[in-house]
Design a protein that fits this description.
It is built from 13 helices and eleven strands. By secondary structure, it is of the alpha/beta class. It has two domains: 182 residues, 3-Layer(aba) Sandwich (Rossmann fold); 127 residues, Rossmann fold (3-Layer(aba) Sandwich), CATH 3.40.50. The strands form two sheets. The chain has a six-stranded parallel sheet with strand order 2-1-3-4-5-6, with helices on both faces. The chain is elongated. Pfam families: Glyco_trans_1_2. It comes from Candidatus Marsarchaeota G1 archaeon BE_D. This is Spore protein YkvP/CgeB glycosyl transferase-like domain-containing protein.
């Protein structure tokens, strides 16, 4: 007990406000990533089906349909009561860092945490409705630092908040997504994710040209997804809105070859044909599938390069240490 008390005093105290804190939830893995560097206390907020979340979705609805809140931002106060954090295990004056992570989208009362550095990590900035929620329901001006997960949104968040805004991409959980070298390659191609019309169109192109290939196309839980990636010669990424999504980091973290749609942001972090490869249209995708199925050596070299890159730079532990370092706490 004495050792734990000394450790508590030595390490910074982080209050993480997040959603989806169930085991295997993204909030759980973010909390876990801070454990090496800090004492972490988690306040997990429910959303989606709660009345509280529904109330705070109203500003986004108004903003995206009639743009009222752009002209009259004070209207959001009608729908935006202050949410007070009740956390009996922790005194506000003991907190060094308050980190609020998207998709938490309500106006949180941060005033009790006078000594703490207040940080918001906006992750779904590529979705317009989420962006408006951040702008009109978050009181971004109350934060000391705002991180955005997508590079193209830096300027907009700076203009709205008037605060320091920095780029912090998504990170992956390296204990889940990792190489499993003992697995055989039973799939020629795989895609793990929700099924949309756009993605089905790509699948249809692939099947029409390569009707003999073994393909996995569908959803899976994280541990199962990692096994599928490790059992695949080529893993596809088809992002919904031309964004750098989490799947890019997870596939590379599994140590497998990734073929992703050509997104500008992907190419700011990774080098095509070295860490992964990209396609611009269906024809190019089909040509590259044909090429890489024949070129196992090239495929494996690229996969190894991508794995080393994400393991060194893009884990959730990397993101946690960056946030603490920027706050002067690491």
């Amino acid at each position: 007990m004495e050792h734990q008390e000394i450790r508590f005093k030595e390490l910074p105290v982080v209050l993480l406000i997040t959603t989806n804190f169930s085991l295997n939830g993204y909030g759980f893995y973010i909390a876990k990533s801070f454990l090496e560097f800090s004492n972490v206390f988690v306040y997990s907020q429910s959303h989606d089906l709660s009345l509280f979340y529904y109330i705070h979705s109203k500003p986004a609805t108004m903003a995206t349909t009639r743009k009222l809140l752009i002209k009259f931002p004070k209207l959001s106060k009608i729908f935006n009561p202050s949410h007070k954090i009740k956390f009996p295990l922790l005194k506000p004056e003991d907190v060094d860092l308050v980190l609020v992570v998207d998709p938490v989208i309500c106006n949180i009362d941060l005033h009790p945490f006078k000594k703490a550095i207040k940080v918001y990590w906006a992750q779904d900035t590529h979705i317009e409705e989420h962006k408006y929620l951040h702008f009109f329901s978050m009181n971004l001006q109350d934060y000391d630092v705002i991180y955005v997960a997508h590079l193209k949104d830096l300027v907009a968040y700076k203009q709205v908040s008037g605060k320091k805004v920095a780029y912090l991409p998504l990170g992956y959980e390296s204990d889940i997504y990792r190489p499993l070298n003992q697995l055989e390659k039973k799939y020629d191609i795989s895609f793990v994710g929700s099924i949309t019309q756009q993605r089905l169109q790509y699948l249809d192109h692939i099947k029409r040209r390569f009707n003999h290939l073994k393909i996995y196309f569908g959803s899976a839980y994280p541990n199962d997804a990692n096994k599928i990636y490790n059992s695949s010669k080529i893993v596809l990424n088809i992002s919904r809105r031309n964004e750098l999504n989490l799947r890019v980091f997870e596939v590379l973290g599994s140590g497998q070859f990734l073929l992703t749609n050509a997104v500008e942001e992907v190419q700011t972090l990774f080098n095509p044909a070295y860490h992964l490869d990209v396609y611009s249209n269906a024809d190019e995708l089909l040509d590259k599938i044909e090429f890489y199925l024949k070129e196992e050596t090239s495929r494996n070299e690229i996969a190894n390069n991508g794995y080393r890159e994400v393991l060194n730079k893009h884990t959730l532990e990397n993101r946690a240490s960056q946030i603490l370092r920027d706050a002067g706490l690491y």
